[in-house]
Amino acid sequence: MITKKITLKNNEEILNILGPNDINLRSFEKSFRVNIYVTHDEENGSAVLDIKGKNSSVNKVEREIKNLIETYYFLTKSEKQTKQIEQEKKEEETDFTNGIVYKTELGRNIEPKTENQKKYVNLIKENDIVIAIGPAGTGKTFLATAMALRALKKKEIKKIVLTRPIVESGERLGFLPGDINEKVNPYLRPLYDCLFSLLGHEKFSIYKQEDIIETVPLAYMRGRTLENSFIILDEAQNTTPEQIKMFLTRIGLFSKVVITGDITQIDLPDKNYSGLILARQILKNIEEIKFMEFEKSDIIRQPHVSKIIEAYDLWEKKKSK
Fold this sequence. Notes:
Elements: E1 2-8, H1 11-18, H2 23-32, E2 35-41, E3 46-53, H3 55-97, E4 102-103, E5 109-110, H4 115-126, E6 129-133, H5 140-153, E7 159-164, H6 180-199, H7 201-209, E8 213-217, E9 229-233, H8 241-248, E10 256-261, H9 275-282, E11 289-293, H10 303-320
Parallel strand pairs: 6-10, 6-11, 7-8, 7-9, 9-10
Antiparallel strand pairs: 1-3, 2-3, 4-5
Helix pairs in contact: 4-5, 5-6, 6-7, 8-9
C-alpha cells in the first residue's frame, strides 16, 4: 500500500477535476479500488488529494488525474483563443462598418476620406476584380494595399502580390547601375513605401522573407498562376493591352485583384495604346469586373497637389489645340 499526493491549485481546478459532488473521485475509487481523501485549504483556495491503495492502482489514478489537469488547461487555452479570434473578427467587422479599413502597427486607423473612396473599399470587399482609374493622390494603391492586409489578417488569403510595369520615363534601364534586382528596385520603391507606412519596416521585412508579401515587376508574372492571393497591379496606365491580358489570366482560385492607374500620366511611346484605357473599353460589359473612377476632389495629399494637376491639365489641353 502506498499514498500519493496531488495538489489542485485553485477552485477552477478543484471543480473540473473532482466533478459535481466529487463524482470523478468516486468513479476513480470504484474503478481502481483506491481511497481518495480531499483536504481543502480555505485560505488560498487550493486542495490536496491523498490517493491510497496498491502501487499499480495509485500510479494509474495519479496519471489519470494529471491527464485531466493537462486536458483542462489545454481546453481552457483553446477556448480563450477561439473567443479571442471571434472577438477580433467582430471588432474588425464593427471597425469596417464604422469606416476603418485597417489598423497599422502603430495603431493608426486607415479609413476612406471621400465618398468615392468609401465606394472603392466596398467594391474591393464585395468583388474579385476592381479596376480603379484616377489622378495621383486619390488613395487608389494605398487603400487597396490596406484592404489586402485586412484580408491577410482575416486569413481570407495567404499571400499579397504587388506588381508594376517597368517603363523607362527618363533614364534608360540598361544604364542604371547594379544587377537586375538593383535596377528594378527604384520602380518598386513606391510600393515599399506604402507597405512600410502600413506595416512598419520590421513586419514588412518578415513578411517579405517568408514570401507572404511579394513585390515583383509585371514582366515576371508571365507563366504563373496565383491562388489564395490578393494581387495589386499599380501604374497600369503604362501597360500594353497584351500585358493587361497576361496579368488578368494569372488569377487563380480564391484570389482577388485590384488594378490601379492614372490615364493622364502615361509614359508609353503611344499613349493611345495604354492597356488600362483599352481595358476600360474591352471589359466594361463583364459584370464581375467593377470600375471605379476617381476625381480631383478625391485627392488627399497637400491641397496644392490638386492645383498642380489642374494647371498641367489646362496646359496639355492648350498644347493639343
